Amino acid sequence: MSIQPVQAFEPPYVMAVFSNVRTADDSGYPEVNARMQELVGENPGFLGYESARTPGGLGITVAYFRDHESLGAWRTNLEHQAAMKQGRADWYESYTLHVATVERSHGFARNG
């Protein structure tokens, strides 16, 4: 399996950039994170996501949605809201969320 970035989509679409620093407490995080990945995938306007963590501990997840309504449905999902509350209580030292509308998008992939 090769590593590939999320494809370029036809603009406009929406992206949410979640930058964070985690606490040392990992209790329950992997299970909740797996459930959130499953749950967001059920959103018809969800296009995909990319996530990375630096060796120093900065995590960045970029999630792509077809429109602001799709992102709003994710933001107001009750199970997601409970996970966000638990994240603030247990898993994150700090985080920042940026939401933007993508106006231009293109990609490149080397053949073979």
What is the gist of this entry?
By secondary structure, the protein is an alpha+beta fold. It has three helices and four strands.
Description:
It is an enzyme of class 1 (oxidoreductase). InterPro entries: ABM_dom, Dimeric_a/b-barrel, Jasmonate_Hydroxylase-like. This is Antibiotic biosynthesis monooxygenase. The protein is an alpha+beta fold and 112 residues long. It has a domain at 26-102: Alpha-Beta Plaits, CATH 3.30.70. It has helices spanning 29-41, 68-76, 78-91; strands at residues 13-22, 46-53, 58-65, 92-102. It has a four-stranded antiparallel beta sheet with strand order 2-3-1-4. Helix 1 runs antiparallel to helix 3. The longest helix has 14 residues, at 78-91.
Provide the descriptors you would attach to this structure in a database record.
globular, about 35% strand, about 110 residues, alpha+beta
